[in-house]
């Protein structure tokens, strides 16, 4: 059976500084779930666990847990998660203790758009350095002490890896510089630990050839037996439709099947 888009595991609310939208509330997320027939939705606001030193400016767990308890609606499972980050030393900003309290956590290896916070300023235009940091951060996640069954690797081909959405060509250069074998060994370990891989790609800026080079990464993940979940990364109500369509296009492009779906819940 074809992979059903019945969930969204990457959604921000007004508690994320980059949203700051009074309309983006748990109630509004629940309404979105209802409108799109989603069965499972997860809040993933940005945070850095207070128990882990090395925070470079994110709010703590205390901040994002303000929404608890989440409103519920029959037929929809609404879970509490978060998007943590990693610093220049590739420290993962969440402890096992806090992770145990949460339903789901996403970790981005691609937040390399913060000069001197996640990447050295002199490395900003250096494709090799960016590729190295990307793999180093991924490696750090694999080596962390975390409940991997409820961890997802967020937007692995996001343009933030190249420093921003206006640097798409540079993003392709960086990803192209990483050989298949490197991705194979990293995804094999990701799969072995039971982590999910996020499908969250804005397909619109890419020509078919460039999109194919983005898809290479997910095709290797699939080949390694990884499981996938979708995320819109919505920051505002207007992002839901856009993100939903992108997810549908990715499911088709990768020909994802239902048995490839990541399910961190009901275990
Ligand atoms: Zn992110
Ligand atoms: Zn996000």
SSE map:
Blueprint: E1 7-11, H1 26-36, E2 40-46, H2 61-64, E3 77-83, H3 96-101, E4 104-108, H4 127-143, E5 151-154, H5 168-176, H6 180-193, E6 196-199, H7 208-223, E7 227-230, H8 239-254
Parallel strand pairs: 1-2, 2-3, 3-4, 4-5, 5-6, 6-7
Helix pairs in contact: 4-5, 4-6, 6-7
Bound molecules: zinc ion (2 copies).
Keywords:
alpha/beta, globular, 35% helix, seven-stranded parallel beta sheet, binds zinc ion, 267 residues, TIM Barrel
Summarize the structure.
With 267 residues, this protein is α/β, with parallel strands linked by helices. It contains eight helices and seven strands. Helix content is 35%, strand content 13%.
Describe the structure.
Helix 4 crosses helix 5 and helix 4 runs parallel beside helix 6. Helix 3 links the parallel strand 3 and strand 4. The two termini are 22 Å apart. The model has no long low-confidence stretch (mean pLDDT 97). The radius of gyration is 17 Å and the shape is globular. With 267 residues, it is α/β, with parallel strands linked by helices. Strands 1-2-3-4-5-6-7 form a 7-stranded parallel sheet. It has a single domain, classed as Alpha-Beta Barrel (TIM Barrel). Helix content is 35%, strand content 13%. The chain binds zinc ion (ZN) (2 copies).
